[in-house]
């Protein structure tokens, strides 16, 4: 059982604090992030600086968003980091990432995310996808499986469809609990999300796609016809060439986009 105290800080469970302590894993993540000065480098949840220090060493400036005031105070006092960091104390779920964008410079966002907020945080970040070059996140392994799932898999769901609508998903590395202090109860994995410059299946209104996915996956055991009956008729499914007796996890991302676009056209 690993200690809850690391570098003199008691890990706070409610902030999802599991600090990375494995230098091999840290080096591989930093290599995957490929820090540079051509992008606005943004870290979510820098904590005690496991990723912050090596990334900051490679660039002129690093912007961080951290919720824990004690950790923010430590970052302000850090002898080296205080000269490189722009620190925002607050909740990354509420943070307006647009304020960080600079003319001609997209963001590279990364973080060992607090697992309790990782899914809503990714949904929040998708809203800024056009301003993001790459995202690298440490997540619960199960979430990485959901992000990269194919239709027909148990892990395929709303998160899969929305993530694959915005981004290409590349699993990078699996990480055991022993790489953290304190050790989490679950396995972890690092994933790379690459927002599309040009989306392969553009949707006319992403809010409609989001609503359609939420509605479709609300009852996974039921058919599309049943779950989407308020949005699409049998004639609509026939027009799209989609079998309405299938379950939501059997439908591909382009098929979800086609359904959303038809819902939009019908409203127009
Ligand atoms: N990056 C450090 C590391 O790898 O050792 C810490 C990772 S720890 C899993 C998650 C970090 O996110 C903690 O520093 C925690 O305080 C911070 N955090 C938790 N909730 C947050 C939120 N809503 N917004 C921003 N930071 C948050």
UniProtKB/TrEMBL annotation:
<dbReference type="InterPro" id="IPR001737">
    <property type="entry name" value="KsgA/Erm"/>
</dbReference>
<dbReference type="InterPro" id="IPR011530">
    <property type="entry name" value="rRNA_adenine_dimethylase"/>
</dbReference>
<keyword id="KW-0489">Methyltransferase</keyword>
<dbReference type="GO" id="GO:0003723">
    <property type="term" value="F:RNA binding"/>
</dbReference>
<feature type="binding site">
    <location>
        <position position="66"/>
    </location>
    <ligand>
        <name>S-adenosyl-L-methionine</name>
    </ligand>
</feature>
<keyword id="KW-0963">Cytoplasm</keyword>
<comment type="similarity">
    <text>Belongs to the class I-like SAM-binding methyltransferase superfamily. rRNA adenine N(6)-methyltransferase family. RsmA subfamily.</text>
</comment>
<dbReference type="InterPro" id="IPR020596">
    <property type="entry name" value="rRNA_Ade_Mease_Trfase_CS"/>
</dbReference>
<feature type="binding site">
    <location>
        <position position="18"/>
    </location>
    <ligand>
        <name>S-adenosyl-L-methionine</name>
    </ligand>
</feature>
<protein>
    <recommendedName>
        <fullName>Ribosomal RNA small subunit methyltransferase A</fullName>
        <ecNumber>2.1.1.182</ecNumber>
    </recommendedName>
</protein>
<dbReference type="InterPro" id="IPR023165">
    <property type="entry name" value="rRNA_Ade_diMease-like_C"/>
</dbReference>
<dbReference type="InterPro" id="IPR029063">
    <property type="entry name" value="SAM-dependent_MTases_sf"/>
</dbReference>
<dbReference type="GO" id="GO:0052908">
    <property type="term" value="F:16S rRNA (adenine(1518)-N(6)/adenine(1519)-N(6))-dimethyltransferase activity"/>
</dbReference>
<feature type="binding site">
    <location>
        <position position="112"/>
    </location>
    <ligand>
        <name>S-adenosyl-L-methionine</name>
    </ligand>
</feature>
<dbReference type="InterPro" id="IPR020598">
    <property type="entry name" value="rRNA_Ade_methylase_Trfase_N"/>
</dbReference>
<comment type="function">
    <text>Specifically dimethylates two adjacent adenosines (A1518 and A1519) in the loop of a conserved hairpin near the 3'-end of 16S rRNA in the 30S particle. May play a critical role in biogenesis of 30S subunits.</text>
</comment>
<feature type="domain" description="Ribosomal RNA adenine methylase transferase N-terminal">
    <location>
        <begin position="25"/>
        <end position="197"/>
    </location>
</feature>
<keyword id="KW-0694">RNA-binding</keyword>
<keyword id="KW-0949">S-adenosyl-L-methionine</keyword>
<dbReference type="Pfam" id="PF00398">
    <property type="entry name" value="RrnaAD"/>
</dbReference>
<keyword id="KW-0698">rRNA processing</keyword>
<feature type="binding site">
    <location>
        <position position="91"/>
    </location>
    <ligand>
        <name>S-adenosyl-L-methionine</name>
    </ligand>
</feature>
<keyword id="KW-0808">Transferase</keyword>
<feature type="binding site">
    <location>
        <position position="20"/>
    </location>
    <ligand>
        <name>S-adenosyl-L-methionine</name>
    </ligand>
</feature>
<dbReference type="GO" id="GO:0005829">
    <property type="term" value="C:cytosol"/>
</dbReference>
<feature type="binding site">
    <location>
        <position position="45"/>
    </location>
    <ligand>
        <name>S-adenosyl-L-methionine</name>
    </ligand>
</feature>
């Amino acid at each position: 059982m690993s200690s809850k105290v690391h570098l003199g800080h008691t890990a706070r469970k409610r902030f999802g604090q599991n600090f990375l302590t494995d230098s091999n894993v840290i080096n591989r993540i930093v290599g995957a992030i490929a820090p540079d000065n051509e992008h606005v480098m943004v870290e979510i949840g820098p904590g005690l600086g496991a990723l912050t220090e090596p990334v900051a060493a490679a660039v002129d400036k690093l912007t961080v968003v951290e919720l824990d005031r004690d950790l923010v105070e430590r970052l302000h006092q850090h002898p080296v980091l205080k000269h490189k960091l722009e620190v925002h104390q607050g909740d990354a779920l509420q943070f307006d990432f647009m304020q960080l964008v600079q003319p001609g410079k997209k963001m590279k966002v990364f973080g060992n995310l607090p697992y309790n907020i990782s899914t809503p945080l990714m949904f929040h970040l998708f809203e800024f996808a056009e301003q993001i070059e790459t995202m690298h996140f440490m997540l619960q392994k199960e979430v990485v499986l959901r992000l990269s799932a194919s239709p027909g898999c148990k892990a395929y769901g709303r998160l899969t469809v929305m993530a694959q609508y915005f981004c290409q998903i590349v699993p990078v590395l699996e990480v055991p609990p022993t790489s953290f202090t304190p050790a989490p109860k679950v396995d972890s994995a690092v994933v790379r999300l690459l927002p599309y410059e040009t989306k392969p299946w553009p949707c006319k209104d992403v809010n409609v796609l989001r609503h359609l996915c939420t509605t479709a996956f609300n009852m996974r055991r039921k058919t599309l016809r049943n779950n989407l009956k308020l949005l699409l008729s049998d004639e609509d499914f026939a027009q799209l060439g989609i079998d309405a007796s299938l379950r939501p996890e059997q439908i591909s991302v382009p098929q979800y986009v086609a359904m959303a676009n038809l819902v939009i056209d019908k409203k127009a």
